């Protein structure tokens, strides 16, 4: 600094005014600063380009030389991005490749800078699901983006932390804990059925997804926190409902806008990013407030005697073999994970099951007959009833096969993985395409035909154990799957018992993968009282 100033002053004539000297120094310093910034940007870009080139070479060697199905033709710069405009068209394109080439592994270059592989057959799914490869959180995609909301909870954590927390959380899904929740599902379903009653009376079509989303959010808030705010009545006027709904939509929106990939751009230069941050802060504050309040009650009064144990009770009291429990931050991350994983996925499964009731009236009649025999004059579904409804269970499973609620997951390989005669290099993302596994023509005959009987007892023995994976499989499978199936069965069973579901003209979608992503754009049905 001293030498810069001295140089400037030396170069000046003796009588230079001090203000002028100051201006000159500032200019020289400014130009140094600009050069430093430009060098930093150039280094950053070069580093990214070199990472990209390395990945691209690996991907190219692994894919082209091994003759696997390629989502192509591949452009040298855009990869396969130019072939589809959104997730719907991506799924459509992939569907036609799987139908024609019947691959077990495919590869695509979905996003700029992110070449990846995908798995679409139970044989290859089995290898990846059984491995302990971590979720793909270091690159673009939903896991990375969602971390700011749900923290390092079960869904995204890995290694020792995931192992320990999974062990501590497993008792929260024991059937003794799940049993009293059936009462909660019935209470929440009562409210849902009353919410749609005016439409049933007037004959007006109802867009089912927003109602169902509130129903599943209400359920998870009651089961996780014993929180009984007027969720379904208030809808988005409830600030937490508003925050969670916005977070879910903003996440999907970011996935479809690769230029918002970088956190700096997203949080500083985009209004969506700023809104995401605001909603995250609110959701965290909401969870923290409830956690701190409950902690105090548990210390002062001990475990609850007048109500069922909820997830929060279990999280707060869980201890590992050294007597160490979860930290406050861990508890918040797990609670937020349940909020996210536990409501949107279930809402999608229920909405598509309702659509399926309308679309397949013959199958709806079979389910209705089973429910009338089972319930007779009872309004509510009991824990015992849940084990005694094969037709409804098969119907729900077939609906989840057809319209897979979580269509894809992704892992990032830490070491090369051999799948059949294909070797996938380390460092690459691998999608597990649950939707394509459910529509692979070598696995599911007439995969586009809705046949719940596929899931009835005598058909099960011949099926590959990894062919039906709506809840994933292996050590990272869905911890909440029994919770979800019970909730879905109560809502669908009671809905069909009370109303006949009919499709609305113009909402009879063709059966194709596009449907999977359509849930949020409206699933309209008509309800007729029985
Ligand atoms: C129909 C409803 C549901 C579906 C289709 C579903 C599906 C899935 C899938 C596919 C995964 C694996 C994700 C991946 O590989 O990245 C998963 C994981 C998970 N799910 Fe679910 N889920 C549902 C409901 C629930 C519910 C109700 C809860 C909680 C109350 C829940 C909690 C979780 C958690 C915590 C994980 C991470 C597990 C781990 O990695 O150890 N899910 N779910």
From TrEMBL:
Domain of life: Eukaryota
Cofactor(s) annotated in UniProt: heme
Binding site for heme: 478
Molecular function GO terms recorded: heme binding; iron ion binding; oxidoreductase activity, acting on paired donors, with incorporation or reduction of molecular oxygen, reduced flavin or flavoprotein as one donor, and incorporation of one atom of oxygen
EC category name: oxidoreductase
InterPro entries: Cyt_P450, Cyt_P450_E_grp-I, Cyt_P450_sf, Cytochrome_P450_Monoox
Keywords, comma-separated and alphabetical: Heme, Iron, Membrane, Metal-binding, Oxidoreductase, Transmembrane, Transmembrane helix
Enzyme Commission code(s) on record: 1.14.14.1
UniProt-listed Pfam families: p450
Signal peptide range in chain numbering: none
Segments passing through the bilayer: 32-53
Family: Belongs to the cytochrome P450 family.
This protein's name: Cytochrome P450, family 4, subfamily B, polypeptide 1
């Amino acid at each position: 600094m001293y030498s810069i100033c001295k140089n400037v002053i030396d170069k000046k004539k003796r009588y230079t005014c001090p203000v002028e000297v100051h201006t000159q120094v500032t200019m020289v310093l400014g130009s140094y600063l600009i050069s430093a910034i430009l060098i930093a940007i150039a280094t950053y870009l070069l580093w990214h380009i070199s990472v990209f080139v390395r990945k691209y070479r690996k991907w190219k060697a692994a894919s082209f030389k091994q003759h696997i199905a390629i989502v192509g033709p591949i452009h040298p710069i855009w990869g396969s991005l130019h072939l589809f405009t959104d997730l719907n068209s991506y799924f459509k394109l992939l569907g036609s490749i799987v139908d024609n080439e019947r691959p077990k592994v495919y590869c695509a270059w979905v996003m700029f800078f992110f070449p990846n592989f995908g798995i679409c057959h139970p044989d290859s799914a089995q290898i990846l699901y059984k491995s302990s490869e971590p979720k793909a959180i270091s690159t673009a995609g939903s896991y990375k983006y969602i971390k700011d909301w749900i923290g390092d909870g079960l869904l995204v954590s890995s290694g020792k932390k995931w192992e320990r927390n999974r062990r501590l959380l497993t008792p929260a899904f024991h059937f003794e804990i799940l049993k009293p929740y059936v009462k909660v599902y019935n209470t929440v379903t009562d409210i849902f059925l009353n919410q749609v009653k005016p439409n049933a009376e007037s004959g007006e079509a109802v867009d089912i997804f927003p109602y169902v989303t509130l129903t599943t959010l209400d359920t998870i808030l009651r089961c996780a926190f014993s929180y009984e705010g007027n969720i379904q009545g208030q809808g988005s006027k409830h600030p937490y409902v508003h925050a969670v709904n916005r977070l879910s939509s903003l996440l999907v929106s970011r996935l479809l806008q690769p230029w918002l990939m970088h956190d700096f751009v997203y949080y500083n230069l985009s209004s969506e990013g700023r809104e995401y941050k605001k909603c995250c802060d609110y959701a965290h504050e909401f969870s923290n407030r409830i956690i701190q309040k409950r902690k105090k009650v548990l210390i002062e009064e001990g475990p609850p005697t007048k109500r069922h144990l909820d997830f929060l009770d279990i999280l707060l009291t869980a201890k590992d073999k050294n007597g160490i429990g979860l930290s406050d931050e861990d508890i918040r991350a797990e609670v937020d994970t349940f909020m996210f994983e536990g409501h949107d996925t279930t809402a999608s499964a229920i909405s598509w099951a309702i659509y399926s009731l309308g679309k397949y009236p013959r199958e709806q009649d079979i389910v209705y007959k089973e429910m009338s025999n089972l319930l007779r004059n009872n309004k509510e579904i009991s824990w015992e009833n849940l084990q005694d409804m094969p037709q409804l269970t098969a119907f729900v499973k077939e609906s989840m096969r057809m319209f897979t609620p979580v269509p894809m997951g992704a892992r990032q390989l830490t070491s090369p993985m051999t799948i059949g005669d294909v070797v996938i290099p380390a460092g690459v993302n691998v999608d597990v395409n649950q939707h394509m596994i459910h529509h692979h023509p070598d696995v599911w005959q007439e995969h586009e035909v809705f046949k719940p009987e596929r899931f009835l007892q005598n058909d099960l023995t011949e099926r590959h154990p990894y062919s039906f994976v709506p809840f994933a499989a292996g050590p990272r499978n869905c911890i909440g799957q029994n919770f979800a199936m019970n909730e879905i069965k109560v809502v669908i069973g009671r809905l069909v018992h009370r109303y006949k579901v009919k499709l609305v003209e113009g909402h009879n979608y063709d059966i194709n993968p596009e449907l999977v992503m359509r849930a949020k754009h409206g699933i309209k049905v008509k309800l007729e009282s029985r």
